[in-house]
Amino acid sequence: MSGFPLGRPARIAVFASGRGSNLEALLEAFPPENPLGHIVLVVSDKADAGALEKAVRAGVEAVHIPWPKGGRQLFEQAALQLLAERHVDLVLLAGFMRLLSPAFVEPWMGRILNIHPSLLPNFPGLHAQKQALEARVQESGCTVHFVDTGMDTGPIILQRRVPVFPDDTEETLSARILAEEHQAYPEAVRRVLMGQK
Ligand code: GAR
């Protein structure tokens, strides 16, 4: 049971490893005055992630938690503690390029979401757009789903589709999908917070 709707604004944390364009879309959709919820914390495993900079610019707490070689447990323990201390209700993985263990995911099941740049269950894992091009599909897209203990598995909340053109490169297809991601993620979060998923 996820327990949504909460009857008060949800406290949302975003985990991101990179530039943070999905984070930006989420910050715009869930500002402090949104009664459904707002972003209170951004966590990155990368000290130089653009996402941390974007969080600071938006006045949101930004925390780098290192992921040392073979040190997933250290990251997860620190992250779990921070989520508890900040009274976070919902975790959004947005370009977070690490696989979290069951020890992290299980206590958050139903309250942790991910976005992936393919129409899952097709093309899970890394380089989803390249995988789609190599498979010569005519359609791809993005998926927002609840995270479970698998990689890019877990119940799907919503998908948005885009065409794949014969002259597409990884860059052109990624950009087309990314524009849909920026619509899809806020919409999926709204549905979850309203108890519709
Ligand atoms: C997005 O395309 C997201 O779907 C993808 O990384 C990009 C992050 O962009 N995530 C994955 O591939 C996860 N397996 P962003 O940092 O600009 O939001």
Bound molecules: glycinamide ribonucleotide
Estimated helix fraction:
25-40%
What Rg is obtained from the alpha carbons, in whole angstroms?
Answer: 16 Å
Shape: globular
Average predicted confidence as pLDDT: 97
CATH superfamily: Formyl transferase, N-terminal domain
How many extended strands?
7
Low-confidence stretches: none
Function: Catalyzes the transfer of a formyl group from 10-formyltetrahydrofolate to 5-phospho-ribosyl-glycinamide (GAR), producing 5-phospho-ribosyl-N-formylglycinamide (FGAR) and tetrahydrofolate.
GO molecular function, one term: phosphoribosylglycinamide formyltransferase activity
Protein name: Phosphoribosylglycinamide formyltransferase
GO biological process, one term: 'de novo' IMP biosynthetic process
Folded structure, characterized:
It is globular, with a radius of gyration of 16 Å. Helix 1 runs parallel beside helix 6. The protein has a 7-stranded mixed β-sheet with strand order 3-2-1-4-5-6-7. By secondary structure, the protein is α/β, with parallel strands linked by helices. The longest helix is centred in the last third of the chain and has 24 residues. Strand 2, helix 2 and strand 3 form a beta-alpha-beta unit. It contains 6 helices and 7 strands, in the order E-H-E-H-E-H-E-H-E-H-E-E-H. The chain is 34% helix and 22% strand. The protein has a single domain, classed as 3-Layer(aba) Sandwich (Rossmann fold), CATH 3.40.50.
Keyphrases for this structure?
single chain, 197 residues, alpha/beta, Rossmann fold, 7-stranded mixed sheet, 6 helices, 34% helix, 22% strand, globular, binds glycinamide ribonucleotide
